[in-house]
Amino acid sequence: MYAAERRALLAARLSEHGRVSVVDAADELGVSGETIRRDLDVLQRHGLARRVHGGAVARTVAQAAELAVTDRATQHAPEKEAIAQAALALLPDTDGWVAFDAGTSTAALVDALPADAAFDAVTHGIDVAGRLARHEGVSLLVVGGRVRPTTAAAVGADTVAAYGRMRPDVAFIGANGIGLERGLTTPDVEEAAVKRALVAAARRVVVLADSSKIDTEYAMSFASIDELDVVVTDKGVTREQVSRLERAGLEVVVA
Q1: DSSP of 26-70
Q2: Residue numbers in the chain where pLDDT is lower than 50
Q3: Given 1.10.357.20, 1.10.10.10, 3.50.50.60, 3.40.50.300, which CATH number is that of 3-62?
Q4: 51-68: per-residue pLDDT in tens?
Q5: CATH number of this structure's domain 69-254, picked from the four choices 3.40.50.1360, 3.40.50.460, 3.40.50.740, 3.40.50.620
């Protein structure tokens, strides 16, 4: 296969899947990892890719506009359901205090809770709060603020300050992107501030992220890798991605 053909194939994969792993592409195409890296560098110079550790993401992924929560709810739904089932094992005992980030991944976890779930909960997600309120055994605290319609999340100085006064046993966090260099990222500065406060408050931080978010990054970083404890993802994650996250000190659960 000529270099031009190989790069065209990589560009097509980026367009279709949003990302390319050096290890996987090298195995599939029967070339060295260094060859794939050079190909991805060429695609980056032509504006077709953005290089990240271990591969590249499509420019449209790295710079994408933020989708509304109603649109994101239908994306990767089977993966989010599998992640939610695996994350149930990470809930504390009934006397624990659990924080839920806003977002579709945490909403999927709440939907997976057993009917007799019983614990103290806190969230700034309006949709997540509504789902938690259906459980009679859950003692729910809702953190207020100005609600962003795009994500149905409360944001603002009051929201950040409220989390600064709390110490939940575990926080389940969602993110638009996760990578070794910039940690967890999201497009909006106010949303990032609230997420940052929640991560700082929790004794244990569990990230719920489908595999499309790994090695993807957005404008605002809100948590470094060393602030996290567990990442729960789906079977679309590559061996190389799991290995890198584990070497960084994270427990990786593949659902």
Answers
A1: HHHHTS-HHHHHHHHHHHHHTTSEEEETTEEEEHHHHTPPPPPHH
A2: 61-64
A3: 1.10.10.10
A4: 888 888 876 544 445 555
A5: 3.40.50.1360
